[in-house]
Amino acid sequence: MTRAWTVRGGRFGQREETALNENLVIAGWEETTGDFSHYQTVEEFREALRGFYPSEGVHTVNNWAHQLWRFCKIMRAGDLVVMPRKYQSVVAIGRILGAYEYRSDSPPGYRHVRPVKWLNVDVARAAVAGDLRDSMGSLLTISELSRRNAVERVTALAEAGSDPGYAGYIQPPANPATLKQEVDEAGTRQLTARDLIGLWNWSRRTADAIEDVDHALRALGLSVEPHFTAGHLNSLVTVSALDTAEPAQGTAGPEAHEDSGTATVSIEDDSPTKDFTWRIGNLPLATNVVTVTVEESLGRAVMHMVENDFSQLPIVDQHRRLVGVVTWESIARAKLGRRQDTIADARTLQYPPTAREEEELFARIRDIQRHGFVIVVDAENVVTGILTAADLAGELQARIQPFTVLEEVERRLRRAVSC
Fold first, then answer.
1. 8 A C-beta contact, residue 140 and residue 245
2. To bridge 109 with a disulfide, which of 20, 30, 124, 236 should be the other Cys (CB 3.0-4.6 Å)?
3. Domain ranges in the chain with CATH number 3.10.580.10
4. Is the pLDDT of residue 154 over 60?
């Protein structure tokens, strides 16, 4: 059975060109020496890494052992491999051709390799749907893309440059121990924020729930990105090991990790920074956003706006990246100016206001008041939602009305008592 993997090209992308030019995927770990092909178990990898990195923590060494185990023993010829480019908005996709090789004559960090045939080296990152892109964006050097029809979707990306997406439901792990096991085996595990806190029998993100889940994750040596408080309960988060990346080049200590660039996190640190800020992603955003492209007719945009009672429509490219917006006002200006009936002629003169889910809500209220909306985009400027003034007013009513009712009840009770 074909599987799909992510193999990163180094903290600074230093191995990417060599990998592409020589048709390889390269594991890194420059402090290691010797052929790993004779190791038969994860424990043997773990023991070897303890010798190469004696100052690293247990969780770090265990995670690295599982990554190298995947690279040397689990990957098979015929499997797909994805290499996200560090400083380009593209990913390279290839097919593994053969077994693990140790190249003793190569420079440190370039010795553990597998031969590949690159199928498509410039797939636009924006063409990858957000859930799969988040999995590819894991800080692990080597991880498996194992859920949400990943193999079929990576195949489509390699062949056609587009991601068919996934609309199904993935069953969450049965318990925290299973979550830990799945992260060890695959490198990452995606699930919704709701399913994550549900593993510890929480259904709401109260202060106690956040503290409990954060502490439990650290005790298991796990981290979550984005944090489960950053978006709404049904948004996806990616769980991985606390210490995921190989050491930086020329560094054997914990102070500089290959892909994260951060210090090793101690699981004994019991004072996490708790984020109770009200963020845009905490609101029930409209996520199935109706959009139009520049090539479509203005009449089609008007039809969408009338049918759905919209005041604006985002304009996107083939990968749903935001390129503009059309509003009733901009349509009227185009008509009065006797311009052609095209989306390009009717879009607003100014670029539409955008926001990320993790942004603080109250910092963007002025923009919502001024424009009547903000369009929510991800790191690749792909449209993921829209927040309008009407949405904000409805949410504020839902949150504030109970307090105003209580205040009214209190006043009436005081009046009754005083009489």
1. yes
2. 30
3. 282-393
4. yes
Taking Cα atoms as reference points, which of 394, 386, 380, 392 lies closest to residue 305? 386
Q: String of b and e for 227-243 (b: at least 16 CB within 10 Å)?
A: bbbbbbbebbbbbbbbb
Q: What is the mean pLDDT of the chain?
A: 85
CA-based nearest residue to 84, from 163, 6, 19:
6
DSSP secondary structure code for residue 316 in this structure: E
What is d(CA 7, CA 143) in angstroms, rounded to the nearest whole number? 7
Mean pLDDT on 174-196: 88
Asked if residue 48 lies in contact with residue 32, where contact means CB atoms within 8 angstroms, the answer is yes
State residue 279's pLDDT score.
80
Whether the upstream peptide bond of residue 226 has omega within 30° of 0, thus cis, is yes
Q: Residue 4 contacts by C-beta under 8 Å, 6 or more apart in sequence?
A: 79, 80, 81, 82, 144, 145, 146, 150, 151, 154
Structure tokens, 73: 């023993």
pLDDT tens-digit map of 336-380? 877 667 888 888 877 888 998 888 888 888 888 888 899 999 888
CATH class of 282-393: alpha beta
For range 318-341, the mean pLDDT: 85
pTM score, whole prediction:
0.69
